[in-house]
Write a structure and sequence with these properties.
One of its GO terms (biological process) is transmembrane transport. This protein is mainly α. It has 10 helices and no strands. Helix 4 crosses helix 5.
């Protein structure tokens, strides 16, 4: 209980005083996760729509594989990206290892299947409703995808938020490819792990509270904006 109270006091103190390290780490966490989520959404949402309107021989297998990829072990993803970006790897010449870019790449691999799978499940139901209409007016596949993406945007927002929640709390892959380097690749999750290892539980709790508050604030903001849009259409 004392550690929890000390953590709360530490978090409040860090926030009120706009601690430089906390602000830097928080901004880097947002930079990495938001960048990864935007890239993942740009890939996953259209892919989910395409998978909903397209029929091909191994479609069921592709959907099953996509759902299985939602459970990718982050440590394995981190190891895979590490090998690719290491000096002896195929992309070692780019010198991306232990940079925020490497962390974004790892998060994209983890988050994209989540967004794609959830968005596909959402748009599959819409496709059942719109199938006859969109086929009858002879729309192209791209037009069908656009219709599903637009009308299913609130469900897709949920998919994107799920991806954000998965990314902001990631530590395994981030630690491997980022290295937790101070002032370069240290984010909230790796900073918490570091402080726990040092035995500084109050600061670790403070950082954890900031991380949770950040995730809740972003989710609430998007929820309010979505609700405002919905009320404006009535």
């Amino acid at each position: 209980m004392n550690d929890l109270l000390a953590g709360l006091q530490s978090a409040i103190g860090l926030i009120l005083h706009l601690d430089h390290d906390l602000v830097e780490i928080s901004l880097r966490s947002l930079q990495v996760t938001i960048s990864a989520v935007l890239i993942s959404a740009a890939i996953g949402l259209p892919f989910g729509a395409w998978l909903s309107v397209t029929r091909f021989r191994y479609r069921r297998l592709a959907i099953a594989l996509l759902n299985a990829l939602m459970g990718l072990p982050p440590v394995v993803v981190g190891l895979f990206v590490y090998i690719l970006l290491s000096r002896s790897g195929p992309f070692g010449v780019l010198d991306l290892l232990f940079t925020p870019t490497a962390m974004i790449i790892a998060q994209v691999i983890i988050v994209t299947p989540i967004i794609a799978s959830i968005s596909h499940q959402s748009m599959r139901d819409l496709w059942f409703q719109y199938h006859d209409l969109l086929i009858s007016i002879k729309t192209t596949k791209w037009q069908r995808m656009k219709a599903l993406l637009w009308d299913g945007r609130r469900g897709l927002l949920t998919a994107t938020l799920t991806g954000f929640g998965r990314g902001i709390g990631e530590i395994g892959a981030i630690m491997i490819v980022g290295g937790n380097i101070d002032h370069l690749t240290r984010v909230l999750t790796t900073a918490i792990a570091l402080e726990v290892g040092k035995g500084d539980f109050p600061l670790a709790l403070g950082l954890g509270i900031v991380l949770i508050s950040m995730a809740i604030l972003i989710n609430l903001t998007i929820h309010i904006l979505s609700r405002t849009e919905r009320e404006g259409t009535w």
